[in-house]
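Course assignment 3, question 2. Fill in each field.
Student: A.L.
Task: Predict the tertiary structure for the chain below.
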Amino acid sequence: MQNSGNGNTIQGGFLDRTFHLTEQNTTVRREILAGLTTFFSMAYILFVNPSVLGAAGMNKGAVFTATALSAIIGCLLMAFLANYPIAIAPGLGDNAFFTYSVVLSMGIPWEKAMAGVFVAAVLFTILSFLKVREIVIDAIPKDLKLAMAAGIGLFIAFVGLQEGGLVVASKSSLVAIGSLTVPTTWLTIFGIFVIGILMSRKVPGAIFIGLVASTILGLVTGLIKAPTSFLSMAPSLKPTFGVGIKNLPSLADPQMWAVVLIFLLVAFFDTAGTLVGLAQQAGIMKDNKMPRIGRALMSDSLSMLAGSVMGTTPTAAYVESSAGIAVGGRTGLTALTAGVLFIFSMLFSPLLTVVTDQVTAPALIIVGVLMVSALKDIHWDKFEIALPAFLVVVGMPLTYNISYGIAFGFLTYPIMMTVAGRRKEINYVMWILFFVFILLMYVLNIVPKGTTA
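Answer field:
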């Protein structure tokens, strides 16, 4: 053994050779603790994802199993392929787009929408293999990447406020505050305060603890019906497995290609931005570049492909991995630990019945807060940047469509930069995306909202 400033490091053995623990100045104990912290910080997705996709008509039990399996695959790939302390699971922004923009707003049945996810995953994997993904990511201005993260966060928070009953529809003002006389609304309010207090105290797993606390309060007060059991085998994947592949003929509809493109773009930027931020936190960045980013992106792509076959929306690197990194996680052993815990979590599917919309709503709202923090790094003092960024951020929640928000920014940015005399700063890829989004806006408006494609 060799003693370092951070504790004993391992000088031999399979784990050290596989994850380079000594090189990263870490220990098995520290990595496992980091994995535990990361898992409990993001375990809420096991219940939130079925809740969000269930609103699209999908079987919640099958989605629960697909969520766990895709997280397991993603974490294991990130551990052994990229050796990063970053966990992967279905992303909240992607499932929100799937349910509220594609299925409910555009009127596309979830079976057809899942075909779009599958095709996007296939293209995603091919582009990652060819390193095109890295080229496009580098071409997108940092300010627009930040605006997309913040806009999706605002959209997710808005969804949470709706599901929690704090915001309701209004004929006169479009939206209004919900009734505080509805008992279940107080579950959401309670959850927000619990998570907020724990987050302020920097308690690991705050979101998961808040979800559990709200569930217990609902059970004690009778607002939530108690489950008949707490443990069981994982629900069958049959209701969702392979549905996307079976519905590939639906891609003959041009509107479906708009869905594919948006899934592709959102997935493009979601993981990339998170990876870079987490790598900076962990001290992994070298010369402003992220080593093995190609492997990390491939890990995300393959888990997205697997998830699309099983029946869940695109996966993404989780910002909650920062909790594990904060306690010392530096290698793939952290991600491996989280993946193993997701395996055990599959025994708790009966708890789906007690995790209601009002219970998961605070998680959506708090994650929205975390994502909106990206606003602070946007160059608001440059109007040619501020306007496109602003349109991205407000466009998503106000049109109730993530794709429109992204389109507003990508259509405005090249024009504003050109008239500001900064045309040479625009990457040619941005001009290609400019024309792609013109076509996209046309396709998205072919079928009126609320109709079936």
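Instructor remarks: The two ends are 64 Å apart (CA to CA). Residues 254-282 form the longest helix (29 residues).
Grade: pending
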